[in-house]
Amino acid sequence: MTPVFLVLLLMTAVPLISICTHGLYIVFIKSVCCAAAEILIHGDIAPSLTKNAVPCTATGCKWPKSGRYVYVPVFISSAYSKQHERDIIIKGLVSFHSSTCIRFVWWKPENRDYLYFMSKTGCWSHLGRQNGGQIVSLQKGGCVYHKTVQHEILHALGFHHEQVRSDRDQYVQILNENIQEGKEHNFRKEQTNNLETSYDFTSVMHYSRNAFSKNGQPTIVAKSNANLIFGYASEMSANDIARVNKLYGCW
């Protein structure tokens, strides 16, 4: 028998108009739908929706666990009118079900916190659970790919980019002289919880070696091999999956 959460995700999404008829949700949904990420941190992380701008290192940024599973409500915008676009997003969501205890379910009016997949400008997400609805932007025509869906979902679950983790200096060298002016903040090291996992060049969360380059030269170089190519993962690595399971106490 197919689990309920899989049935829900394979069903057609609830029309937007039905959400905007639930009393107080009218104003709230409009504010979420129309919010724009004017300043992105590390390239694709939107600032916190709360007053606390501290990175997602505390328990409060995690999605709550209920029994064996972590249920995360989602809503997919009707702007993704082509079925293959919706299928890619749903496939990305369901990919977490087979390897972690994360379970994505359709949003209901009683759900205060949820992920709202929208086609805003660019590919971006907030870091960890926010208070209320939070946008995951997957711009049509440029961001609706399996690896990008997984990448932005991992941000929403509380994970930073691999190359900014607290111990990154042991594994990579950041070549500031090759970084575009004004983009240096994207390489700022963070005080991350690495969950006793090794640095992972195959992570779907890793930038490419030429990310934000102003001259075509590398901005990130592996210390173990200066010619190592990375940042082109097509899906989550074993380490990405292990970190989700460790952070959320899945197994």
What does this structure look like?
It is a single chain. The protein is an alpha/beta fold. The protein has two domains: 154 residues, Collagenase (Catalytic Domain) (3-Layer(aba) Sandwich), CATH 3.40.390; 91 residues, 3-Layer(aba) Sandwich (Collagenase (Catalytic Domain)). Helices cover 22% and strands 15% of the residues. The chain contains six helices and nine strands, in the order H-H-H-E-E-E-H-E-E-E-E-H-E-E-H. The strands form two sheets. Strands 1, 2, 3, 4, 5, 6 and 7 form a seven-stranded mixed beta sheet that branches. Strand 3, helix 4 and strand 4 form a beta-alpha-beta unit. It starts with a helix and ends with a helix.
Runs with pLDDT <50, length 5+? 10-31, 33-37, 49-54
Question: Percentage of helical residues?
Answer: 10-25%
What string, H for helix and E for strand, traces the elements in order?
HHHEEEHEEEEHEEH
Instruction: Specify the CATH class of the largest domain.
Output: Alpha Beta
Rounded Rg: 18 Å
Write the CATH architecture name of the largest domain: 3-Layer(aba) Sandwich
CATH superfamily of the largest domain: Collagenase (Catalytic Domain)
- Category by helix and strand content: alpha/beta
Number of domains: 2
Q: Largest beta sheet, briefly? A: 7 strands, mixed
Q: Nutshell version of this structure?
A:
Strands 1, 2, 3, 4, 5, 6 and 7 form a seven-stranded mixed beta sheet that branches. With 251 residues, the protein is an alpha/beta fold.
